[in-house]
Amino acid sequence: MMLSLLVARALSVYSILIWVRILLSWFMPYPSEGTFTYYLSRIVDPYLGLFRSSKSRIGALDFSPIIAIGLIEVIKAILSFFGTYGTLTLGYVLMLFIQAFWSYGISLFLILAIIMLAVKTIASFSNNPMFYTTSERFSDAVAPITNFVRSTFFAQRKNKPYKIVNERWVNIASLALIVVLYFILSYLCKYLATNALRLPF
Asked: What is the pLDDT of residues 125-137, one digit of tens each?
């Protein structure tokens, strides 16, 4: 139990080091040898490298550090629980994984999609070139969502004359869909986590 608590505390420190590395990488992406950032990258980057792939990227944003931190937080919580109570249940482990899957995965992607779609929606109503330029950068990232909405809700019906779809309505419908999906999945994950904790084993 003591060993579990010690490892959990060590993981807390390592998680903080990962966050520091992420923040410093914005200012010094290629640290020079002998600097604090260089030695920090030697400690942290091998672990982060295990999660890097093209599937964890959306445009210029890399979500692999969030996934890596999420896994550490789950392991740390399991070790802390066992170190404190001397027991561990499958229900508790399942609850932790469901919460991490939501907190460090789905919710981040949905929140980012909401922000990008909100900017695109505002840009479609505004003549401000700043909004337009920013929204164009987000177009590729949210294209799967807007294409789905366009084909599902604004598709041309058979034997009907062709009608140009107003992009403004596509953006509004896409934003509304993702907001609703966010609340539905949030409730579902909470429901699953609560019921997992009630498992008798």
From this structure: 877 766 666 667 7
